[in-house]
Amino acid sequence: MIQGVLSNRIRALRFEHGEMSQGELGQRIGVTRQTIAAIEAGKYSPSLEAAFRIAHVFGVSLGEVFQWDATGG
Q1: Mean pLDDT score, 24-29
Q2: Do the Cβ atoms of 36 and 65 come closer than 8 Å?
Q3: Distance in angstroms (rounded) separating the CA atoms of residues 6 and 45
Q4: Which of 3, 5, 15, 37 is the most buried if burial means most Cβ atoms within 10 Å?
Q5: How confident is the model at residue 71 (pLDDT cuts 50, 70, 90)?
Q6: Which residues lie across from 69 on neighbouring strands?
Q7: Is-contact 1 53, C-beta < 8 A?
Q8: What is the tens place of the pLDDT at every residue in 51-67?
Q9: Structural domains of the chain, with CATH
Q10: Which residues contact residue 14 at a Cβ distance below 8 angstroms, ignoring those fewer than 6 apart?
């Protein structure tokens, strides 16, 4: 199994978009604030659908939100 690290720019993107709260982003994509907090912290990987929804909210590509490092760090 390939181990790796999924990182993201959600926090930076929220602040670039009018200091959007975690709760507001969660509402816009259909998840809880706690889920957004866990995704931001790297403690939870979103479903593919949620990842695309997040990118759509910010008007950017998936690769501009999430980065995958297959080397693990």
Answers
A1: 98
A2: no
A3: 7
A4: 37
A5: confident
A6: 5
A7: no
A8: 999 999 999 999 999 99
A9: 5-69 (1.10.260.40)
A10: 20, 21, 22, 25
